[in-house]
Write a structure and sequence with these properties.
Elements lengths: L25 E4 L18 H11 L9 H19 L6 H13 L4 H6 L2 E4 L11 H10 L2
Helix pairs in contact: 1-2, 2-3
Length: about 140
C-alpha cells in the first residue's frame, strides 16, 4: 500500500512543490465512475450500516480503480461489518482491526488514498465566495 507515518497533505495544501516525494500523484474525479459494472445488491440480512457502507462505495471516486476482486472484498468487508454490528457480544478488538485493514485496502478513507498517492478532486459544496478584485484595485491605488 503506501508509506507509514502521518498522512501527507493534499496537493493544493502543500507549500513546497519542487521536491518529488515518491511515486507520482494520481488524481481522479470524485463521484461515481461512469463505467461501473453491474454489482450485486447488498444482502437483505446485512445490518443497515454495512449495507449503506457497501452502497456508498458505488458512489465514491475510488470505485473507478476497483476490479472484480475488489468488489468481492467489499462484499466480504460488509458481511464482516454486519456480523460485528449485529453481535450481542462486545466488539472484539482483533475483528475490528481486521475490518479496518480490509476497509483500508479498499481506500475508503482519505488518509488511505493519500498514502496510496491517489487524490479525489473535491466538489465545491458551499456557497461561492465573492471575487476580491475590487479590493486588489483599491490596494493598488493606495500604493499598498
Amino acid at each position: 500500500m503506501g508509506a507509514r507515518g502521518p498522512v501527507g497533505k493534499r496537493s493544493e495544501e502543500r507549500r513546497r512543490r519542487n521536491k518529488p516525494d515518491g511515486p507520482e500523484l494520481l488524481q481522479a474525479p470524485s463521484g461515481p465512475p461512469s463505467d461501473l459494472p453491474s454489482l450485486p445488491e447488498p444482502d437483505g440480512d446485512w445490518h443497515d450500516i454495512a449495507a449503506d457502507w457497501y452502497l456508498s462505495l458505488r458512489e465514491s471516486g475510488q470505485a473507478a480503480f476497483y476490479q472484480a476482486s475488489d468488489w468481492a472484498t467489499a462484499r466480504y468487508a460488509a458481511e464482516l461489518m454486519s456480523r460485528l454490528l449485529k453481535s450481542d457480544r462486545a466488539p472484539n478488538g482483533q475483528l475490528v482491526a481486521a475490518l479496518n485493514s480490509v476497509m483500508g485496502s479498499l481506500l475508503t478513507t482519505e488518509g488511505d488514498r493519500r498514502r496510496a498517492r491517489i487524490e479525489l478532486e473535491r466538489q465545491p459544496t458551499g456557497p461561492m465566495l465573492a471575487v476580491v478584485s475590487p479590493l486588489d484595485s483599491y490596494r493598488d491605488i493606495a500604493g499598498g
